[in-house]
Amino acid sequence: MKRIVSAAALAVALAAAGVSAAAAITNPSSMRLLAASHSSSSRGTKITLHKTAVGKVLATSSGRTIYLFMADRKGKSVCYGQCATFWPPVLQKGKLRAGAGVKAGLLGTTRRKNGTRQVTYKGHPLYLFKLDRRAGQIKGQNQDFFGGEWFVVSASGRANKKTPSPSTTTGTTTTTPYSTTSHY
């Protein structure tokens, strides 16, 4: 009886491994995402400074620009639902770390409605912008959507309200949440 149970357990384990391998072969990006999220959480969430067209601003460890939402109040996010689809919150995964030039004492977190911890800087909840695809892009800069304005964040924790000049941006047209185009 023990052999039958052991053989059945082994068969189930091998079948599960086969399904995982098949998923990795048919959709390799899912395995990269899984590996990236796992390694990210083991190292923690690191906030860095990155050069953009409006100067050095807060960014993720991969260089994605971080924004603050002027409509947020008292250190709490008001960006949920469709807003959070376009402006995903920067969530704490593991230990929160400050990169060079980032003031560790200004880093913190706030609890979102679903219980996750959103990273804050000088009390401002932090966000990414869905249309920023590469390090240093600032397509969300000076946008006015979902009841407030969005700005990149300086190392001092203030909204950097500079407007990039057209010659320093890479694209001329961007699709935005509730308008057809926005010109930079």
Question: What does this entry look like structurally?
Answer:
This protein is α+β, with helices and mostly antiparallel strands. The strands form 4 sheets. Strands 3, 8, 9 and 10 form a 4-stranded antiparallel β-sheet that branches. A 3-stranded mixed β-sheet has the order 2-1-4, covered by helices on one side. Strands 5-6-7 form a 3-stranded antiparallel β-sheet, with no helix packed on it. The radius of gyration is 21 Å and the shape is globular. The chain folds into 2 domains: 1-43; 45-183, no CATH class. 25% of the residues lie in helices and 28% in strands. The longest helix has 25 residues, at 2-26. The model is unreliable at 5-41, 169-176 and 178-184 (pLDDT under 50). The protein has 3 helices and 12 strands; from the N terminus they run ααβββαβββββββββ. A hairpin with a 2-residue loop joins strand 6 and strand 7 (124-125).
